[in-house]
Design a protein that fits this description.
By secondary structure, the chain is an alpha+beta fold. The chain has helices spanning 16-24, 91-101, 132-137, 182-194, 197-205, 210-223, 276-282, 285-301, 305-323, 333-357; strands at residues 9-13, 32-38, 41-50, 61-68, 77-81, 109-116, 119-128, 143-148, 172-176, 233-238, 244-248. The chain has 2 domains: 9-128, no CATH class; 132-303 and 353-361, no CATH class. Strands 1-2-3-4-5-7-6 form a 7-stranded mixed beta barrel. The protein has a 4-stranded antiparallel β-sheet with strand order 9-8-10-11. A hairpin with a 2-residue loop joins β2 and β3 (41-50). The mean pLDDT is 96. It comes from Paenibacillus sediminis. Keywords: Capsid protein, Virion. This is Spore coat protein H.
């Protein structure tokens, strides 16, 4: 896993009137105009806050849309994540790199230093948007993309709060496609919940790429993203195969910490994971055995302290000088320094826990 030698600096300028409008309402979803300068090149952009919990924190995340020119790094929009609740600031990056290592789709993530109206706003993780350009840059067939925007995206007919959903597409927002394309989501959710057990293997195999779903399941079970089973993912329906694939998103609450940065014990998420689709897939003997075999291989080769330690330490070393420049987190440098050992210790315990539970997948 190669790392960039230097973290770029983004200079964003917002005039006082628009900056006041932006800060007056943290829930505002309309971007205000701004100018971005990177490496002596200027871009006219729209900027707005993004995320949910992070909007209430001092250090906020941003969503940038490019207006002129319309593309930057081959993308029309960029997400600047504050990673404020993660004391290591590497959990999302480490997660997406891990997903790619095991063969799953994941957005690219790069660090940047943000300066806003001349003042240092801090270190940010820039995330690639999962859209048509995401597909194009990977030479993937065009298709439909749906974002799982809240926990109604649990592949069930019932919400996590035991209420009947208002619609089969509840919890999803179409990113690539149009309103009529929600019928693909409706078909998927309906079949997951109504197809008899005897027919499920055949029917689900014509709707989702089971092998890739299992890879995603391994990624989320290893990194232990509790919320990621029911939201914070994208569904890509491959226009060539007609099969759904799942793409991870928002992975700061991983590797032993929750969304508030608190300790999440290594055994919190079971080896079987969560959500209705996962439960039904693992109820099929062939799929359960496939999951066990693939998970065991990754536990032996990729999800080990020895395999991941050098990447963890390299990430920490790369961003440490920029942590010291971040006005929101530079006072917690001792905690930052201790997080690499914390993550490595989590991997050791989580791996041992999963290896001990493989017997449950017979």
């Amino acid at each position: 896993m190669e790392l960039p030698k230097e973290i770029p600096t983004y200079h964003i300028v917002i005039n006082n009137k628009h900056y006041k409008n932006l800060r007056s309402d943290i829930w505002r979803d309309d971007p205000v105009p701004a100018k971005l300068k990177v490496n002596s090149k200027e871009y006219y952009i729209g900027i707005q806050y993004r995320g949910y919990h992070i909007r209430k924190q001092k250090k906020k995340s941003f969503h940038l849309t490019f207006r002129s020119p319309q593309l930057f790094m081959g993308r029309r929009e960029h997400h600047l994540n504050a990673e404020y609740m993660d004391p290591s600031m590497i959990r999302s990056k480490l997660s997406f790199d891990f997903f790619k290592e095991i063969g799953n789709l994941a957005p690219n993530a790069e660090y940047i230093l943000l300066k806003l109206n001349g003042s240092t706003a801090g270190l940010y993780l820039q995330l690639e948007s999962v859209d048509d350009l995401f597909l194009h840059q990977r030479n993937l067939p065009s298709g439909h993309i749906f974002y799982a925007t809240n926990d109604d995206a649990n592949f069930s007919l019932i919400t996590p709060y035991k209420k009947v959903k208002t619609s089969l597409e509840a919890g999803y927002r179409v990113k690539v496609g149009n309103q009529e394309d929600y019928h693909f989501i409706r078909e998927l959710i309906y079949n997951i919940n109504t197809v008899p057990r005897s027919d499920f293997k055949h029917e689900i195999s014509r709707l989702i790429d089971v092998n890739k779903y299992i890879l995603w399941l391994i990624g989320i079970v290893c990194t232990q993203n509790y919320d990621g089973f029911i939201q914070n993912y994208a569904l890509y329906r491959n226009g060539q195969s007609g099969l759904f694939e799942i793409i991870p998103w928002d992975y700061d609450a991983t590797w032993g910490r929750d969304i508030h940065g608190r300790v999440m014990e290594y055994d919190y998420v079971p080896i079987q994971g969560y959500n209705t689709l996962t439960s039904r897939l693992l109820d099929v003997d062939e799929f359960r055995l496939q999951y066990r075999t693939m998970l065991e291989n990754i536990l032996e080769t990729k999800f080990t302290p020895s395999y991941l330690e050098s990447h963890i330490l390299s990430l920490q070393s790369m961003i440490r000088p920029y942590i010291l420049l971040d006005p929101y987190i530079n006072k917690d440098i001792q905690k930052f320094d201790s997080e690499a050992d914390y993550i490595i210790h989590f991997i050791h315990n989580r791996r041992r826990y999963l290896l001990d539970r493989l017997v449950e997948l017979k």
